[in-house]
Automatic annotation (TrEMBL):
Its EC number is 2.7.7.65. PANTHER family: DIGUANYLATE CYCLASE DGCM-RELATED, REGULATORY COMPONENTS OF SENSORY TRANSDUCTION SYSTEM. This is diguanylate cyclase. It catalyses: 2 GTP = 3',3'-c-di-GMP + 2 diphosphate. InterPro entries: CheY-like_superfamily, Diguanylate_Cyclase, GGDEF_dom, Nucleotide_cyclase, Rev_trsase/Diguanyl_cyclase, Sig_transdc_resp-reg_receiver. GO terms for cellular component: plasma membrane. GO terms for biological process: cell adhesion involved in single-species biofilm formation; negative regulation of bacterial-type flagellum-dependent cell motility; phosphorelay signal transduction system. Residues 329-471 form the GGDEF domain. GO terms for molecular function: diguanylate cyclase activity. Residues 13-129 form the Response regulatory domain. Pfam families: GGDEF.
Amino acid sequence: MQSTVNDMSVQGTILVLDGTSTNRIMLKVQLTAAWYHVVQGERLRGLPGLLRRAKPDLVLTSQTLPDGTAADVKRLVMTDPDLIDVPVVAIAQQNDKAARLKALSDGLDDVLAYPFKDTFLLARVRSLLRARADTQELQVGTSSNPVGFAEPSGVLIMPAKTAQVAILTKSSCTSALWEKALSKQATYNLSTHTTSNLQGVLSGPVPDAIVFEISANPSGLNLLADLKSRGTTRHAVLIGVLEEENAELASEALDRGADAICMGGFCAEETLLRLEKQIARKTQLDQMRASLRRRLVESWIDPLTGLHNRRYAMRAMDQIMHKAGGAGQGFAIMLADLDHFKSINDTFGHTGGDLVLTEAAKRMKQTVGAAGFVARIGGEEFMVGLANTTQANALDLARELCDCIRDTPFDLPDASAPIPVTISVGLIMAQPNVVSQSYHPPRLEGLIKSADTALYAAKSAGRNQVWVRQSAA
């Protein structure tokens, strides 16, 4: 089967930097066998251009290059806004703890030491690429402008907070020792728990990070999978600590969701360096998720009145229609339009007109209540959708809408006295006769057109009234 660079690049592009050709070849063989697209380089010189051309998803670099270091590579990658979230991993020639700590303190995302097994290398690559993919998905969501009436808004900036870090070990004695070592150098809110009492983690303050002891028995890895599946801890940073240099167990933990692994026993300095980097990343992702949630809400809301917008109204009516047909229930659509609204704008300006719109929206929403929804679908035009209703009930509510606008004149700052305002309503009623699995609801566009025709009739008949059209549904 023929394969191309484009086929493989779907799995991720990895840039390998090393001044020794045999090291580059070995890494390329390992990574290519796993269907990654590998690009190679030897030194810092020319790296900016190579980064622009390759657009890597991950950089594996020797800790020392002919003309620089892994830390220099990380700094160059960070200068490109399009690559700022690309992980950079240093490859050390030997398992030198001091060199590993130096690389982590320089901002490297991880350090791997020769010789390492294929399984561990590939597990770490998969873990880092998954993390970057999560970031990119949120970037796509938060960069798109909301639709509907809502205006685009700035990036949400959350105030810094002291992170909650849970320590989870097999024995309370071990967790107490870890807590004591970490508290000497960190300002995190630390809590200690044992693996036999996971409820303590789940019922306390939501942890930003969990430092946990990885044991060789299956229950230790099952605990990791459990933490990733819980709503409370799904987004928590998970840093595993292995007593031995066990590449197979470390690989399994990474594939089950660990964000980082410390091998060779607990080291407070290394743990803190990894916590600092991973918690900073989590804070950024939390802000992006909050921004995305806010934008999703804004995409359904009219910012002036706080009502739903046209986009929401069309989706909601479509759902009401399909549910009504299956249950044999009636539903109604109303189009309502403030009468002579142009004269209000002309007399009191757009500020006065906006005040009338917001007050009218408030009154209509209170009147409809839980019976349905109210949406602003145009300048002074509103849509009301009612589910599971009868024509009599819908007509009563339409008349109440007219009353709530007419009965209390509107106060405006520039008006010498409250001004009278009225509204006209066009109502279309649809009443499926029987419950039917094969029910085909009428086209929403047609129902809205009928409601608009009824609204036009109400306007032509003198305004401040309700006109009804009956659907043949």
